[in-house]
Amino acid sequence: MAAAVVRKPLMRIPYTEPFAAPRIIPRHATTPSAAIAALGNFLTAPPPSGLPSSTVVLTGAGLSVASGLADYRGDNGTYRINKTYRPIYFHEFVASHEARKRYWARSFVGWTTLHKAKPNASHYALRDLGRLGYVQSIITQNVDSFHRIAHPDHTSTVELHGYLRSAVCTTCHGEVPRDDFQAELARLNPIWAEFLYEAIEAGAYESENPTTGAPGTSSDAPPSLKFVRGIKSNPDGDVDLPDAPYSTFRYPPCPHCLANPLKAEDGTQLHVEVDSDGAWKMPSHTSSTDSAAKTKHPGILKPAVVMFGESISPAVKHAAEGAIDQAGRLLVLATSLATYSAWRLATRAKDRGMPIGIVNMGGVRGEDVFFAGIDPDESDGKAVRVEMATDAVLPPLVEELQKQSSSVSHGGDRTLSAGRVNPALFKDMLS
Ligand SMILES: [Zn+2]
């Protein structure tokens, strides 16, 4: 039977080649004070006619570097991940018990780094820009939940690529908090849990240099894990553990599907099988070579992130597009827009005639197009391009905007709002 196939863009491996060095806009915005003034001018300039004065922010991995999380790219824009690193694809994860063991083992060890990490000054500066009325919404590619932690109430956040704080069931789509899931992984894998505990005790997670720091060397630890020297997490929260004994790793099933098995389309019950400790088990009536059955194993939990080869849910896609469509300008922070989904949103903003600002170390995909027709000497708030770390410019930008707002509104209404700032104040700072 032939059904119409709707093609959805799938998450792909990002560009790995360096992008061209940026053209700084305005040209002299190469010092922190000039960059801050240019950003203030950008946020307070009158929007093009027909567009609202609000700003939508699009953030990426660079924003969380100051929280101790890895970036995909180094300062000069080159791809930092080991060339041999190959992330898992969605279809592999769903189809292969072995692939899931390997993924969850690495994620089990990597979760500690993410769990310890906290939002940094950039996240809190964005909270303040929201409170002051300059930023209406945030779209993030980051899966670390830092935006929601830093500004849970004020500024809406679309998590374009999902989040690591939950695992989600591929059958019933119910979610399990990652902390609960982590506790289950520890219960089902006591030797790994002991290794992890000893690695933390030995300070392996404190080490900046992967060749220093010593993990525990318990005689019970999996042999190959004894050689891990310092643990570096990838941006998605897992770690590289070459040759670790993944095959014995166990993971739990979806508790909802275990308790209340769903029915398949043909009416049969989708029973989840578990071992005597409650770990997910390959259904006994299928063989691992049964390709038809492979994709139907019920009760499989996956991280609630968009994996490579998986598509962004329509609801999230629409929310992100809506955030662009309801704003009058776009500020891109700490991302090279290497992923298609993020680059496409910036392109959507450009197509709507929205002024675009970018703060990023290293070049950004397609930025020459975003800034086409912009004279770096006459940008006048219509564009800004700064090559600095966000935590160096956003907190002082907030301070400056607070100062300008209170000087404009002094003696009157104390409410701060973007519309009350006199753009000329920033022009003075630029000269
Ligand atoms: Zn389920």
From TrEMBL:
Record: active site: 161
Residues reported in the UniProt entry to bind Zn(2+): 169, 172, 254, 257
Keyword Transferase: yes
UniProt cross-references to SUPFAM superfamilies, sorted A to Z: DHS-like NAD/FAD-binding domain
Superkingdom classification of source: Eukaryota
This protein's record includes keyword Zinc: yes
Deacetylase sirtuin-type domain mapped to chain residues: 29-404
InterPro entries referenced in this protein's UniProt entry, alphabetically: DHS-like_NAD/FAD-binding_dom (IPR029035), NAD-dep_sirtuin_deacylases (IPR050134), Sirtuin (IPR003000), Sirtuin_cat_small_dom_sf (IPR026591), Ssirtuin_cat_dom (IPR026590)
Assigned protein family: Belongs to the sirtuin family. Class I subfamily.
Name of the protein: Sir2 family protein
